[in-house]
Amino acid sequence: MTLQAPLFLLVLLVAPVAVFLYLRRERANQAGRAAFAAPAMLPAVAPVLPRWRRHVPLAAYLLALIVLAVALARPQVAVSVPIEQARIVLVTDHSGSMAAKDVLPTRLDAARRAATDFLGRVPARVQVGAMIYNQDPEVLEAPTRDRRAITEALASVVPAGSTATGAALLLALKVAQPAVAPGERPPPAAIVLISDGESVRGSDPLDAAREAERLGVPVYTVALGTPQGRIPKEGGGTVPVPPDPETLAEIAEISGGSAYAVDDSSRLSEVYERLGRQLTRKTEQRQITAGFAGGGLALLVVGAGMSLWWFGRVP
Fold this sequence. Notes:
Layout: E1 2-3, H1 14-36, H2 42-45, H3 56-72, E2 75-82, E3 87-93, H4 107-121, E4 127-133, E5 137-144, H5 147-155, H6 165-176, E6 189-195, H7 205-215, E7 219-224, E8 230-232, E9 238-240, H8 245-255, E10 259-262, H9 265-279, E11 281-287, H10 289-311
Helix pairs in contact: 3-10, 4-5, 4-9, 6-7, 7-8
């Protein structure tokens, strides 16, 4: 909890002063009663005062003072709220190395399954787009709320070709941020990039990451696969296709996103679930002044009610 006007807490200095004055008055009353008659005669000539009940209403007033002082300081708390106008672009590498089976059943199948789970967890009002890339990026679906269209588009993707991550990111930035009227701000956007290999074609992906940072579009990267991953090569045998987590981590760091390295399908599903929560919610400060003000007034009413019920007056 934070306070927007903490100087109002100086009102709390009244509390110890009030306690001091109350205790001094109690001691004075006791001294007066002792002077009125001998201690042995007091029960007969002086009324018997309730012991704890006479302090309870004043304790309620004191607590009300504290709560109302906090209300004056305008307390607020951080709460997680959905981002309903966000745009998320899923960018999936479908180069030939995505046929590797070190992530079962294949890297591409695991990515496709995780994307489907991700779509199921994203709030319905959030627009999600889908892209694939190898040496050429391709937009499968512009940002939409139609989850089925994206799932169906991803189902037809097959591994082929090499990798051009920089070009894919530059196109994803255009997809993520629509044209807006002068003076307006585009909706919040993010890119989720899943790839398994080093970029060997086109523009430098780190330059694309810097452009993403300039535009305020974080890129969340997932390096999929293990160093042991291999795919068949023409003429027989296999060729290693290790992932490139270092470059993907740099892309995420430069753009303001987060990087993940995943070596199995269950871990990939966990990452996508985490991203689903992270990218569709934001933290906002909410004032809770009304709650404190209501609580303080309620304490005042309770204190006054107890005084009237027990003593027939309000101190």
